[in-house]
Amino acid sequence: MKKPRRRQKGRSQGPRSSNSPKIPKSGRLNHVILTVNDLARSKPFYAALMPRLGFPDAHAFGPFLGWSSSGGSFWLKQADPRYAGEAFSKDRVGLCEIAFNAENRMQVDSLAGDIEGLGGSILDPPREYPEYVKGYYAVFFADPDGIKLELRCGPVSRSVKRKSWRRPPM
Fold first, then answer.
1. Which of 33, 99, 104, 120 has the most crowded CB, counting CB atoms within 10 A?
2. How far apart are CA 65 and CA 44, in angstroms?
């Protein structure tokens, strides 16, 4: 009887056949585009915010405003007039929140102290979130349209590291 092979640490636990494509190691997003109610109102908020989150390069590309780094880009576009004035809700189908990584707690605290002055609002002040994972420290805030954002530092959450996690079937 053949002895079963042990899975290597960090490998996908999902079903794979010999002709399955290789799973990329980077796991990074290339870009995010947010649709906002008033691009002119959102521009100063994001122009001040994005360099502090590691996106120093600003761009205007047709109807889009964007910020980029070596890790990807973040863009804004004006909402279609049919949807003007509609409020964001994290509980509707679509986006719930966007979380950015901080270098340390001081960066989280510093940004939290400035959010309201930039035109945003604090949803949950900086604190530890041990229910996520020990050492997870974050501030939750909203942009001028109420879109939920987060700046966090610390280890990845248990849901990402959980050994029993399995990739959903395709």
1. 120
2. 11
Phi/psi for 18 (5° steps) reads: -65, -20
Q: CATH says 95-170 is which class?
A: alpha beta
Residues 6+ apart with CB under 8 A from 116: 122
Q: In angstroms, how far is CA 156 from the centroid of its own chain?
A: 13
Question: How far is it, in rounded angstroms, from Cα 118 to Cα 140?
Answer: 15
Cα distances from 132 to residues 101, 110, 148, in angstroms, run 15, 22, 18
Query: In the chain, what are the domain boundaries?
Result: 29-81, 95-170
CATH topology for the 29-81 domain: 2,3-Dihydroxybiphenyl 1,2-Dioxygenase; domain 1 (3.10.180)
Distance (Å, rounded) from C-alpha 7 to C-alpha 80? Answer: 49
Q: What digits encode the pLDDT tens for the residues 76-134? A: 999 999 998 888 898 988 899 999 999 999 999 999 999 999 999 999 999 999 998 99
Q: What stretch of H or E contains 16?
A: none
The model carries a pTM of 0.78
